[in-house]
Structure formats: C-alpha cells, structure tokens
Design brief:
The complex is a heterodimer of chains A (about 200) and B (about 325). With about 200 residues, chain A is mostly helical. Chain A has helices at about 15-20, 20-40, 45-60, 65-75, 75-90, 95-115, 120-130, 135-165, 170-200. Chain B is mainly α. Chain B has helices at about 10-35, 40-55, 70-80, 80-100, 105-130, 135-165, 170-200, 215-235, 235-240, 245-250, 250-260, 265-270, 280-310; strands at about 60, 65. Chain B starts with 9 loop residues before the first helix and ends in an 11-residue tail after the last helix. The chains are: A mainly alpha (about 200), B mainly alpha (about 325). At the A-B interface, helix 2, helix 5, helix 6, helix 8 and helix 9 of A face helix 1, helix 2, strand 1, helix 4 and helix 7 of B.
C-alpha cells in the first residue's frame, strides 16, 4: 500500500454532510452496515435503496465519484478473489453476487464516513462512549504521529536508495530491515521526548 | 488477512467481537496497572511505527513484494498486553481511517491479528527462547514464533469465514493455511532481521518486555491463553472434526479450484496434501507437521547466521 493512495483529500472541505455531528454519521454508518450484511439477496430493493442513499450523500458531500471508485478498486482484490472462487464452486452457501454487493456497499459506506469525518471527531465520540483513556491516548498519539513516521520512513528509504547500488536480494533485505529497526529506535526516542513535553504541559 | 464487511455473518461477528472486547479489556487493564507512565506514549508511537514499517516493501521473487506485519516483533519488544493494545489500535485506525478491514468485522480482525497472533506468538517465543539460549536462540525463537503466529491467525481467519458460511472450510483452510505458511517465512525472516538491528543498535530497547518483571503474570497469561483457545475452539474445532467427509464430497470441486486460483495460491495448496498418505485428515496433519518442522529448521539457521554476523558490513553506524 502506497502512502499517497491513503491520503484523505476530502476531509477538510465543507458541506452539509461534513457538518453533521459525528455521532449521527457513525450511527447511520453502523445501521447501513448491519442492514447490508443481514439482508438476503431476494430483497434486491433494499440494496438499491442503500446504494441510492450512498450516491446521494456522496453527491451532497461533493466527493468525486472517480475518487470513490478508485479507492473501492484499490481495497477490493481480496473481495474479488473470494467472489471468483465462490462463483466457480458449486456448494458455496453464499452466492458470489451477494458477496460482491455486500462488501462493495459496506466499503463505500466506510469510505464516505472516513472522508467526511475528521478522526478527532471519532475520538470524541469514543470518549463519550467511555472507552478507557489508555486506548484513547494511544489512538490519538498513533493518529498524530502516523504521517510523521510514515514520512520519516520514506525519507530513510530515499536516503537508502541514494546510497545503495547493489540489487542483491539478501543485502537488500538486511538493509531494509535495518531501516525498519532504526525506525523503531527513532519512534522510541520520539516517545520519550513526547512524554517530557506532556509532563511539561501538566499531563496527569 | 483483513476481513472486509459482508464476509462474516452477524453471529460470527458478535462472537468474535465479544472475545476480542474481553481480551482488549484485560490487556488495557494490565497496561494501566503495570506500564510506567513514562512508557505510555510508546504505545501510540509503536502503533505508528508498525503502520510506517508496513510501507517498507521487501522484494520477493517475480516482482512481488511483502511487508512486515509485526505482531510478534511488537510482542517481543513490549510484552503481550501492550502488543495487544498496539495491534488493536493499528487495526482500528486502518478500519476507520482507510476502510481497510470491515467495521462489523473489526472484532474478528482484532481477534485474529491482535489476540491470536500476539498472544500465541509471544508464548511460542518465550518457550523456544527458554529451550535455545543465547542471541542465536532468541532470533530463531522470534522467527519461528512469527511464522507460527501468521499461520495460526490465518487458520482463525479461515475458521471465521467458514463458520459464517461464506466459503467452505475445505476450501478456506488449505488455501489460507498453505498461503500463510509461505507468507509466514517472509514475516519470520523480516521480524528476525529487524529485531537483530534493534539488538545491535539499542540492546536496552529489546529488554523492556513488561511481562518479564511483573509477578503473578502466569495466571494472567493463562487467562489470555484460555481466551484464544476458546475462540479457536468455537470457530475451528466443529469444522475441523467434519473435515474428512467434507473433503471427500468436494474433492472434484477442489481440483477445479486449484486451476482457477492464482498461481501463488494454488502452489502451496497443491503441495499441502501429500499424495503418499491416503486419509485426508492424516494428510493435512502430516503436511502441517512437516511444514512446521521445516520452518523451525529455517528459523534455527537464520538465527545462527544473524548471530554469527557480528560485524555486519551493512549495519548502520552506532550513534
């Protein structure tokens, strides 16, 4: 998975969907997911209704269809693989059309949620739901330093490519592994600095 | 191995969610009680590290590449309970931020990739390290545990998929276990290489396992083990016991599938059953034993090589 494919281009834009409270969006997402997973194939109308609702909210949120489709394709190789295996086998109890439709709709729903809701809003909802503070702190710190460390890894990899000329696999692997090991050492050192900064600002 | 939404039914999702909520709750309680406040930010940073390390692609033959999953690496570096918290955090962020893995399947994903992978991996790591002392033994134990945890997590995943009737057990189990017996080799190798780097540059960081110091952690470890065993018993045992007739009835269909599957899947799945042994259940067991022994041998070799390579020509300069 490449870094630039993961960026959320549409979190900061403004629309009625973006302005809805995160609680409502999260509840609606869960409701749509449960309906989609539970519904049998014979109730085709329900799938159509869910799809129509998704298209409508994507339009209101002004998220380009091309972006959503590209992300859907990027995330579905496993889904398509299982659908192909199921379509070829005679005794699979879940038909492949249903598998494809269900996971496509669910994926689009979550993509819509994550592209219209800032992560900090989701954290606020979790805090209201009394999730233990250790979990909240860990989630918040991970989200804060996710992109910092990802960029650091990219910088280290760039420096490595600039200095290594051999493409022999064995050496390549051990160099890449020392990049990853160094990344852990740097992450640990950063966490020590963060702790000092947290204390300086009166944490606990 | 991230299960998307729509692949497991409500019953499986609810069961797995209950199991992983219990496990994560236990881990969070232990972390709150025993982790030094100074190390609290390390959990978040370790999660961010895992995410960033997963973007470093290791070239495998034929233009494909693999990456670190890191369950056993984190468990060996921080201890099992912090590892469960860290891995769950990674899975939650991947699910809500990047839609990687389903929201309703989050419980199942946490069970497979946080609980099964970290708890069983750490237990195997500690047992093997006790048998094989020294740096080479430690690296071999880590590589073998990483291989085992990858395979076990994939078996749990196949069990959940089959339990909810999305794919049949006789199709899911050989494909998932066989494929992950190969993927696990890469995971074990990368984990051991990364751990060797950390041992070389900052040996103190490799010794901060929480569970080494605390008293009475044997009972707690038994608790986690019970939880993992319970989940595996629920999802896998009923299916595994019906394996022979299942295999017999769909034998023709399986042959059909091997042709249809992409080459990476069909090779290990075909190798997985040895034609010399007749009974399907015995064949699967024999293939599993041989695969495990081979992985253990490779891990021993890797540990010895890495430990012998003291003055590494490509080691990063010490600070």
């Amino acid at each position: 998975m490449r870094f630039h494919l993961l960026e959320h281009a549409h979190v900061t834009s403004d629309s009625p969907v973006h302005r809805l409270p995160a609680e409502i969006k999260l509840a609606a997402t869960l409701a749509v997911l449960i309906v989609t997973v539970v519904m049998p194939l014979s109730r085709g109308g329900c799938f159509a209704a869910v799809a129509a609702a998704l298209v409508a909210s994507a339009a209101v949120a002004r998220i380009p269809a091309g972006f959503l489709l590209r992300r859907l394709l990027l995330l579905s190789p496993f889904v398509i693989g299982v659908a192909v295996v199921n379509s070829l086998s005679a005794v699979a109890s879940v038909p492949w059309q249903l598998v494809l439709m269900r996971s496509g709709l669910c994926l689009a729903t979550v993509l819509l949620l994550s592209n219209t809701t800032p992560f900090s809003e989701l954290l606020r909802v979790l805090r209201r739901l009394r999730v233990p503070p250790v979990m909240i702190t860990t989630l918040a710190l991970m989200y804060r330093y996710l992109f910092v460390l990802a960029e650091e890894a990219e910088r280290m990899q760039r420096a490595r490519t600039g200095r290594t000329f051999t493409r022999r696999r064995g050496i390549h692997w051990s160099v890449l592994a020392s990049v990853a090991g160094q990344l852990f050492v740097r992450a640990t050192e950063r966490s020590e600095r963060i702790y000092d900064a947290m204390c300086a600002r009166g944490w606990k | 191995m991230h299960i998307p939404d729509g692949f497991i039914d409500g019953r499986t999702a609810a069961l797995a969610a209950a199991l992983s909520a219990t496990g994560l709750g236990l881990a969070l309680r232990q972390v709150r009680r025993e982790l030094a406040p100074k190390r609290m930010p390390l959990l978040g940073l370790a999660a961010a590290f895992l995410f960033a390390a997963q973007m470093i692609n290791f070239p495998v033959a034929g233009g494909t590449s693999g990456h670190l999953t890191g369950a056993v690496l984190v468990a060996a570096l921080l201890g099992p309970a912090p590892a469960v918290v860290v891995l769950s955090t990674v899975l939650i962020v991947q699910c809500f931020l990047f839609a990687d893995g389903g929201v309703l399947a989050l419980g199942a994903n946490i069970f497979n990739m946080a609980l099964v992978a970290a708890i069983s991996g750490h237990a195997i790591y500690r047992c093997v390290w006790r048998l094989l002392p020294g740096t080479s033994g430690r690296l071999a134990a880590l590589a073998f545990a990483a291989w085992c945890s990858t395979v076990l997590a994939s078996i749990a995943c196949a069990g959940e998929l089959a339990f909810s009737g999305t794919v049949t057990w006789s199709a899911a189990f050989p494909a998932m276990a066989g494929l992950h017996m190969l993927i696990g080799l890469g995971e074990g190798c990368i984990s051991a290489l990364v751990f060797a780097t950390i041992l070389r540059t900052r040996p103190d960081l490799a010794a901060q396992d929480l569970s080494m110091r605390s008293d009475g952690n044997r009972r707690r470890r038994a608790g986690y083990g019970l939880l993992v065993a319970l989940g595996l018993a629920v999802f896998v045992t009923p299916l595994a016991s019906s394996l022979p007739d299942g295999l017999e009835t769909v034998a023709t269909r399986l042959g059909f599938e091997h042709r249809a599957a992409p080459p990476l899947v069909s090779a290990p799945a075909a190798d997985y059953r040895i034609s010399a042994v007749k009974s399907p259940a015995a064949t699967t067991a024999a293939a599993g034993v041989i695969g495990t022994l081979a992985a253990f041998g490779l891990a021993l070799l890797l540990g010895r090589t890495l430990a012998a390579r003291g003055a590494d020509p490509v080691a990063p300069p010490r600070r």
